[in-house]
Write a structure and sequence with these properties.
There is one protein chain. By secondary structure, the protein is an alpha+beta fold. It folds into two domains: 2-91, ATP Synthase, domain 1, CATH 2.60.15; 94-139. It contains three helices and ten strands, in the order H-E-E-E-E-E-E-E-E-E-E-H-H.
């Protein structure tokens, strides 16, 4: 059992509301700000921002879970990968029609925005919604 645990990395996914996942896995692929990065046992120390995208959780040689994250931070140690996500949800729970309707509203908000701060917030929300749609497309 001890040897088996050394071949795993402890993965924790935390949202503002709660701990979403905490278990030993073979590998985790995280959408980092500068590109996706894979975390295996005995990984080097790393702290990264997380861009909107999908975390792939590998067990027994295949992807067992796909989780959309809207951004956040990741901390990696040789034993653990912790992702603090702004928002997280399983990819298979993305409602395409709902996201498309929200995206339409957000695009109108950008067009109507007179204030640069409001426009920037809407543009950030658009990027998240577009990433959510892309995540839903790749899961089909």
């Amino acid at each position: 059992m001890a040897d088996e645990q050394q071949d795993k990395v402890q993965f924790e996914l935390v949202s503002p509301e709660r701990l979403l996942m905490s278990r030993a896995v073979d590998m985790v692929v995280v959408p980092g700000a500068e590109g996706d990065f894979g975390v295996l046992p005995r990984h080097s120390l790393l702290i990264s921002t997380v861009r909107p995208g999908v975390i792939d959780v590998y067990e027994d040689g295949s992807v067992k879970d796909r989780i959309f994250v809207a951004g956040g931070f990741a901390e990696v140690t040789p034993e653990r990968c912790t992702v603090l996500a702004d928002e997280a949800m399983p990819v298979d729970r993305i409602d395409r029609a709902e996201v498309e309707a929200r995206l339409k509203e957000l695009r109108e908000d950008v067009t109507d925005a007179g204030d640069a701060e409001i426009r920037a917030a809407a543009e950030k929300a658009i990027a998240i919604a577009e990433a959510k749609l892309a995540a839903g497309l790749t899961s089909a």
